[in-house]
Amino acid sequence: MPDNAVSALDQLPCEHLPDALTPIIERYWQRLLEREQEAPSGLPELLAEQRRLAEQMALVWAASDYAANLCIEKPTLLLELVKSEELLHLIRDDYHGQLQDSLADLTDTPDEAGLKTLLRQFQQRQMLRLIWRDVCKLSSVRETAAEVSALAEACLDVTLAQLHRWAVQTHGEPVAARSGKALQLVVLGMGKLGASELNLSSDIDLIFAYPESGETSKGISCQQFFLRLGQQLVDALDAVTADGFVFRVDMRLRPYGSEGVLVCSFDAMENYYQSQGRDWERYAMIKARTVAGDREAGAELMQRLRPFSYRRYLDFSAFESLRSMKQQINKQVRKKGMSQDIKLGAGGIREVEFVVQALQMVHGGRDKRLQQTSLYNAMDVLREGEYLPADTVQALRNSYSFLRDLEHKLQGFANKQTQSLPASEQEQLRVALAMAVPDVRHADWSALMSVLEQHRDIVRQHFTDVIHTDEDDDDASRHDVDDDELQGLWQQELSEEAATKLLADLGYEAPAQTCEQLLAFRRDKVFQTLPAESRARFARFMPLLLATLATEKTPSVGFSRVMKMVESVARRTAYIVLLAENPGAMKQFVRLCTASPFVAEFLSQHPVLLDELLTVMEKPPEKSELQAELAQGLLRLGENSFEEQMEYLRYFKMSHTLQVAAAQITGTMTVMKVSDYLTFTAEAVLEQVLALCWQHLTHKHGYPVNLSGEHGTMDFAAIAYGKLGGIELSYISDLDLVFLHDGALDEDTVTSDGQKSINSREFYTRMAQRVITMLGTHTVSGKLYEVDMRLRPSGESGLLVSTLPAFEQYQQKDAWTWEKQALVRSRAVAGSAAMAADYEALRAKILSQPRDRAVLAEDVVKMRKRMREELTRKAGRNASQPPFVIKQGEGGIVDIEFMVQFFVLSQSVDCPALLTYSDNIRILEAAAGCGVLSEAEIERLIAAYLALRATLHEFALQYTESGPESRANDEAIASALAPLEKVQADVIQLWQKVFSVYDN
């Protein structure tokens, strides 16, 4: 080395570093100078010219022995990085290209030794660059992690491609037996590699798989071919040579762990996870993604495995399994004295991961946005979806970034996979220096530890809040229940007499009956054959259930109703865990089922709705909120997921049905609001069903042409009649619909993408058919709505969908009086806004035509009499008598509806206000100003209508599909109907007043 280089820079500038670290830098500098005497590289000269670079190198050497030794032993690495300016830029998108260039000199003849050498040289250059940028704060924590991950991915992908080419030359091309396709290995990255968040010295966790069985052209099975290829890939990266290693490879996350085969087929993988996958493997699979090999096949594999991690219901068993995993980790930490481990110790990295991934596992099956491999991305969704408060997410993000930054510094120090804090004072100062950039003169270990403890306290608190990890904590204390005696009751440790007395003391009105039901459930074959884990879940759940029921007025009745749901999910105990984990949901569940057999049966049929009990609706949502919620939920599914769309629509409808029932039971919602909410829910569903059907048909057939010769818009409208039209939907109402279109009858649709066009009339007929199918098809979750199309022109013999002119012609010339009555409660609810406006104008035109009131009255009265006789004949004196009396009996709801319809048909020609609305209450309010009855009489009708509907809604909650639970209790039914006697008498009197005027 020339003397002028030494004189220009006889030592690295260290004045910006703590004095205690100067000797370390001087020793390293002396070693570099000695090496330069033997093999000049030009590095000292470059440092003499670039003081800023020299200062950075002193800082890097102070923070990393590994980087210092690389600079000394291979100074050309740093020279190349400086000259190429790679130190200044993020280059993760270029690793593949650079590594392929580095391997370009490899021949077609297999040379694994040469491959290993080139890989390690490439890795060392990049690791020096990454540590340099990390220490000098040229990259953020997240950027560094992403760069290391991209480096690992490139090394895997490029190396695998090279080894595959050599293997094919030797053993032949592997070909699938069924499809005949050439096959490639699929490499899944797990853990931090899958998340693109590797540390500076991470292992890489991998799983190998291949698409299907077959053999090579030389007769070697695909299993053997890919086994050898996988072994070669691991060896190429993991083996320690004179040049070190590329990445440590860990294959223990594969099926059956270390005892399993190194590589297996997709079918074998799927079968393993479906039949034998364990909870910790579900957790691990959250981060799995294809990192090398056949990406297209890898995407197929991940699609097949995704249901293993993400269940379609809210899966609170995730908390249980993660809590168990954390307890095992804590035992390991205590046993090995690892309290200073920033990954596994309290408030460490693992706890942040557990918080985020627990919520991913719980909610990710429902909300696919949460199916993220990246922890940072998952945090964003947790904030956006309000699964955690924004300030909690930010606090966890800040703490996680700090912990990961410190982890980088610990690992970059000697290129060792460690998360333990150093013990020596000198190493502590060096780590503190790396963390203190840019204020390195004030590097202080105690100050760093103070900040670390603050972050660990934050993580520990949020972890406890979400996972409930205190090892002395149990479900009972979180439910404020002392359940020792109830546990003894459940475990049959009490005598029959003692068990009965215990329940009686707790307030059970039929303790002997409850005891017998409890024992019958335990004796049932379903419970007896449950696995040990499920029985343990019941052992936690049942005492909590019994104690919670004791807070109700009729706990024995509640127990009988609740057990319907418990029995229905006995083999799916994740639902039991949901209630055990959430005291609020348990109380809500018990309260609603005790109050309503309808709710109890509804939940037993659809236990997936139990998660809706986690929140209590404070006020009913506006229609716009329901529309937005449904639209956003469907958008998350994507356009081509028809089955998922069908299931989501059903879940949306069922969840809001449960919410409104809960609101009615708790008294937070009036009868009018109940019907509004149910109606708005149906409208939101109908709007989205129309949109999905339109999207499907236009993609298949192109756009229909309307009467104006234009295309591209949905000239189709759904007209609601009956309860939907009158904004009076109940819990189990059908949807009475009529479909109209504005298509040109003789014009074909406009073709797109080569699809065959069809007549516009046929297009809209198919549209109507598909809408009916989507609404009425049974799926796993049941059906959306029963659709009744009998009110369309000409009834069941008429066209499924009509044009507006054809509809008008029918109404003007052929419609019966009862059809015009039905028109009163009709309105456009979905589809074309222009057609909706045209329909409303046509409805007003038809309803307001002059009519002979005497003839009209005679028709209305005859129709009412005929309807009552027909329904009475069908109903007889059976169990549906109470609601029949309320609705169809003399002085019931239908009498009021007929009066309202008569008012509109007879008076709207002179009183247009009657045409504004389609619901009975607002029509009656408008009638008060039309003189048909006095204001006082109108108020009596309104009061009667509300009272009758309130009772009808109440009966709906007390009835199940198998009949009223209280069927035998005639006194209870009579008590419910008694207040209606005066109401019905008022209706009868007003009916007579309205129609006696026209009585001949």
TrEMBL record:
It catalyses: [glutamine synthetase]-O(4)-(5'-adenylyl)-L-tyrosine + phosphate = [glutamine synthetase]-L-tyrosine + ADP; [glutamine synthetase]-L-tyrosine + ATP = [glutamine synthetase]-O(4)-(5'-adenylyl)-L-tyrosine + diphosphate. Keywords: ATP-binding, Magnesium, Multifunctional enzyme, Nucleotide-binding, Nucleotidyltransferase, Transferase. Residues 487-1000 are annotated as: Adenylyl transferase. Its EC number is 2.7.7.89, 2.7.7.42. SUPFAM superfamilies: Nucleotidyltransferase, Nucleotidyltransferase substrate binding subunit/domain. The keyword Transferase applies. Residues 55-301, 587-839 form the Glutamate-ammonia ligase adenylyltransferase repeated domain. One of its GO terms (biological process) is regulation of glutamine family amino acid metabolic process. CDD domains: NT_GlnE_GlnD_like. Its cofactor is Mg(2+). Residues 1-472 are annotated as: Adenylyl removase. The keyword Iron does not apply. Residues 323-466, 862-965 form the PII-uridylyltransferase/Glutamine-synthetase adenylyltransferase domain. PANTHER family: BIFUNCTIONAL GLUTAMINE SYNTHETASE ADENYLYLTRANSFERASE_ADENYLYL-REMOVING ENZYME, GLUTAMINE SYNTHETASE ADENYLYLTRANSFERASE. Involved in the regulation of glutamine synthetase GlnA, a key enzyme in the process to assimilate ammonia. When cellular nitrogen levels are high, the C-terminal adenylyl transferase (AT) inactivates GlnA by covalent transfer of an adenylyl group from ATP to specific tyrosine residue of GlnA, thus reducing its activity. Conversely, when nitrogen levels are low, the N-terminal adenylyl removase (AR) activates GlnA by removing the adenylyl group by phosphorolysis, increasing its activity. This is Bifunctional glutamine synthetase adenylyltransferase/adenylyl-removing enzyme. It comes from Pseudohongiella acticola. The lineage of its organism: Bacteria, Pseudomonadati, Pseudomonadota, Gammaproteobacteria, Pseudomonadales.
